[in-house]
């Protein structure tokens, strides 16, 4: 097969679908799968089998890293219990339930082999639900849960798959499986933390933006390869490294590096996440050709796949009900706990003096108060639960994992085709009807007016911190000379004007600021960035607002740094 030609066709198709899909009101992943299926059925197009190890070891790590590096760590922490339940417990329950179905319907299929296929179809796709969720304007917390689930459940499923495959050879006990799972998770977290911190440290010492961004391309593989080599969860190590990089990057990377990395990784993510859906549809012809009628026919395999899809949907729905109930209990506890935290904060404010210990206590309580506010303000109800339960789309990872099943396992071609059926049906049926469900439920994201008001408050807070630094009597230029009153006035006016411009449509005033203006603006930006990071740590503002303010500061710092006379 002419792979370069296939690559060109794929890229042009992906870009075309990205332009056309919004106009048609269809999610791009669904349209790409259908185009891939249509292309595979064109006469003369050869059957195409994409090596599964390339999906699991080459495509999946950068996809997970690019998603993890953009997940706010505070959102992840605040939803840790729900994400763990969805990404670990739900995967295990789904694998056992679907595995029991496969063992019952396929005579001669051992329990470990059936559980292996159950592990293959149990994780939701890391891309489909979140990409649709953002486009459809789901509440931020629902998107966070779906994104966190998609990042971690691949790790749970692949570890479970590895244990099930080992069990097909015999000699594996339940205690041994639990030990292997704990080893895979513990080692992955350790390697991910080490790789994340080391690469952030190394990149922070590189002055060249191109070199810095180039190293970032290697980070997911630096985490994945050694972890996978010791038979731990490579994908979990990639996620941990991405979370560390996303959290530490704003502290140590320059604005130019952050902007460059954001654009480059967004491009990589766009190509990979859309390419895998096109590839998934393109493999249909090959999968059908591999199914032998003397065992289980294609029609029978499709029927088993449909039954498995029903089981997975029911299990997920039954799991989400108590999950939402638990989150509602947390909301009620947060309301009661908020009063206690407010009382403690009042006692700190009325203290005669404030030492280091009191400052730390105040910071800790402020963060706790913000966490409690999050539980109440962004509470989830039955409508959110309905969307969460219906967002169980599977994707190409399930297909790649199925193709990694041992060659000697009974019904192997049929098992792969069953996994493909589950992934395809969930994408087309659940993914296709998810927009309708959201509209019928009247579920929307955060109100634009509220976001604008909160964003203005955040900019006002960090601007105040920057302006306060201008009153420091020790403030001076690099040579020790004091800044002129005119320069101080202009920089102060810039910060005030930027905050006021949030409610205006006129373009900012233009001019030719001199060197003092630039130096002072950079100084104020540094203080504003410190205040923004402090606001991020306390969790007083939504993560999407923090990210928006970060981009604003990055763009301004890049403009000033690249042009000495800006």
Characterize the structure shown.
It is a single chain. With 566 residues, the chain is mainly α. The protein has 22 helices and no strands. Helix 3 runs antiparallel to helix 17. The radius of gyration is 26 Å and the shape is globular. About 2% of the residues have low confidence.
The backbone outline, from C-alpha atoms, is globular
Number of extended strands: 0
Beta-strand level of the residues, as a percent range?
under 5%
Mean pLDDT, to the nearest integer, reads 81
End-to-end distance: 53 Å
The major beta sheet can be summarized as: none
Class based on secondary structure composition and strand pairing? mainly alpha
Number of helices: 22
Topology as a string of helices (H) and strands (E)? HHHHHHHHHHHHHHHHHHHHHH
Identify low-pLDDT runs: 504-514
- Gyration radius (Cα, Å) is 26 Å
Query: Helical percent range?
Result: over 70%
Helices and strands in order:
Elements: H1 3-24, H2 28-40, H3 52-68, H4 73-78, H5 80-105, H6 111-121, H7 128-136, H8 140-168, H9 174-204, H10 209-229, H11 234-252, H12 255-282, H13 284-290, H14 298-349, H15 356-377, H16 382-390, H17 396-403, H18 412-441, H19 448-469, H20 485-500, H21 515-538, H22 543-562
Helix pairs in contact: 2-12, 3-10, 3-11, 3-12, 3-17, 5-6, 5-8, 5-14, 6-8, 7-8, 7-18, 8-9, 8-11, 9-10, 9-11, 10-11, 10-12, 12-22, 13-18, 14-15, 14-16, 14-18, 17-18, 19-20, 19-21, 19-22, 20-21, 21-22
């Amino acid at each position: 097969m002419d792979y370069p030609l296939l690559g060109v066709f794929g890229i042009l198709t992906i870009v075309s679908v990205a332009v056309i899909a919004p106009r048609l009101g269809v999610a791009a992943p669904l349209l790409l799968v259908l185009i891939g299926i249509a292309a595979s059925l064109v006469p003369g197009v050869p059957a195409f089998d994409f090596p599964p190890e390339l999906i699991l070891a080459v495509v999946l790590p950068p996809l997970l890293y690019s998603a993890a590096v953009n997940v706010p760590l505070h959102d992840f922490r605040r939803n840790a219990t729900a994400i763990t339940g969805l990404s670990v417990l739900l995967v295990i329950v789904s694998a056992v339930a679907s595995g029991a179905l496969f063992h019952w319907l396929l005579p001669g299929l051992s329990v470990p082999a059936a559980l292996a296929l159950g592990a293959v179809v149990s994780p939701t796709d890391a891309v489909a639900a979140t990409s649709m969720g953002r486009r459809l304007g789901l509440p931020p917390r629902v998107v966070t849960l779906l994104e966190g689930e998609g990042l971690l459940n691949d790790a749970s499923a692949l570890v479970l798959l590895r244990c099930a495959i080992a069990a097909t050879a015999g000699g594996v006990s339940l205690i041994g499986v639990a030990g292997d799972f704990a080893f895979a998770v513990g080692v992955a977290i350790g390697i991910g933390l080490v790789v994340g911190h080391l690469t952030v440290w190394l990149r922070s010492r590189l002055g060249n933006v191109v070199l810095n961004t180039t190293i970032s391309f290697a980070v997911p593989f630096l985490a994945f390869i050694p972890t996978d080599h010791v038979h731990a969860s490579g994908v979990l190590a990639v996620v941990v490294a991405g979370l560390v990089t996303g959290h530490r990057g704003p502290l140590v990377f320059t604005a130019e590096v952050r902007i460059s990395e954001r654009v480059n990784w967004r491009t990589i993510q766009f190509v990979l996440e859309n390419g895998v859906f096109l590839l998934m549809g393109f493999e249909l012809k090959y999968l059908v050709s591999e199914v032998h009628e003397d065992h289980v026919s294609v029609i029978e395999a499709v029927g088993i796949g449909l039954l498995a899809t029903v089981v997975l949907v029911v299990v997920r729905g039954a799991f989400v009900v108590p999950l939402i109930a638990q989150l509602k209990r947390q909301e009620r506890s947060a309301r009661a706990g908020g009063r206690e935290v407010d009382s403690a904060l009042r006692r700190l404010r009325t203290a005669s003096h404030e030492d280091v210990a009191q400052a730390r206590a105040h910071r800790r309580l402020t963060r706790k108060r913000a966490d409690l506010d999050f539980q109440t303000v962004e509470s989830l109800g039955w409508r959110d639960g309905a969307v969460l339960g219906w967002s169980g789309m599977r994707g190409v990872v399930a297909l790649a994992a199925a193709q990694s099943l041992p060659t000697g396992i009974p019904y192997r071609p049929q098992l792969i085709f069953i996994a493909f059926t589950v992934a395809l049906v969930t994408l087309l049926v659940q993914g296709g009807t998810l927009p309708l469900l959201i509209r019928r439920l009247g579920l929307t994201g955060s109100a634009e007016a509220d976001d604008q008001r909160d964003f203005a408050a955040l900019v006002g807070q960090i601007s105040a911190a920057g302006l306060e630094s201008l009153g420091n009597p020790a403030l001076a230029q690099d040579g020790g000379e004091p800044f002129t009153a005119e320069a101080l006035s202009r920089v102060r006016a810039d910060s005030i004007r930027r905050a006021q411009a949030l409610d205006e449509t006129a373009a900012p005033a233009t001019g030719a600021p001199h060197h003092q203006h630039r130096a002072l603006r950079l100084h104020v930006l540094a203080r504003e960035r410190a205040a923004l990071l402090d606001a991020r740590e306390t969790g007083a503002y939504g993560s999407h607002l923090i990210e928006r303010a970060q981009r604003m500061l990055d763009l301004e710092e890049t403009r000033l740094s690249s042009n000495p006379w800006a």
